[in-house]
Amino acid sequence: MLTSMTSTLITVAPTGAESSKADVPALPVTLDELVATAGDCEAAGASVIHVHIRDAEAQPTLDLGRLKDTVAALRESTNLIVQLSTGGAVTDPEEHRLRVLEAAPDMASCTMGTVNFGDDVFMNRWEFIVELHQRMRDRRIVPEYEIFDVGHLTSLERLLNQHGLPHGEHVHVDFVLGVPGGAPGDASTVTAFAEATRRHLPPGSTFSATGIGRGTLPVMFASLAHGGHLRVGMEDTVSYARRVPVDSNAQLVARAADAALLAQRPAMPVADARKLLNITG
Ligand code: KMH
Ligand code: ZN
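That's the 3-keto-5-aminohexanoate cleavage enzyme sequence above. Prediction below.
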């Protein structure tokens, strides 16, 4: 039985491109560390892994060989749905971000607009978004549309109207809240974005939400209250509580799974997540 209406899809974003290993020693940056984290997070209740990788110096990279090895290793050792980031780091050129798709993940992220990103700019031109959307459909990769601000939802409405539904025909978005320069990481923003999702996206569209830093818990609770899903992980949160560093990604997944259970929407099994997102491969 598909339990998607009553259960909670938990995505783990274990690494990101912004934190350094020197500042955050628990950050998984090698393939072995990533694979170990992925297994622990699957056991704790995650069904999707949103992946950024690092090079031999632990710097963010979009190296295609490493991405292919990462997809293969995660498939070999877990049953998780593998979602590669096409956002990369703010410095990554568009052609490298598009090339990520050649690693043939189950899913890939697609950010729906440009946003100030701390002191930087996370650039996502309209033509680039359209190209990413079309190449994902050609390669039968299911997108997760990343929403940093409310206009990104109306841009997605325009994208779907002009260029059609994604591969799998299910629309799933992720609200990334609390980036300095984007929408705030608080409960009222989740409420507004959930409402905008219902008004602007096709019926049956689903959303997850993540709050950066201290927005983590308010966003988690608000998303559960609105029937949304969850993303957690050290890409977004490196403090478990005030002055308490996160031990591991699995610690964050376990807390999300506990919250989901308390909300009477327990963590979604991977098989149900595949059905919800229409991942057939
Ligand atoms: N690292 C950010 C610049 C994504 O993964 O698609 C972009 C990001 C979004 O994390
Ligand atoms: Zn990311």
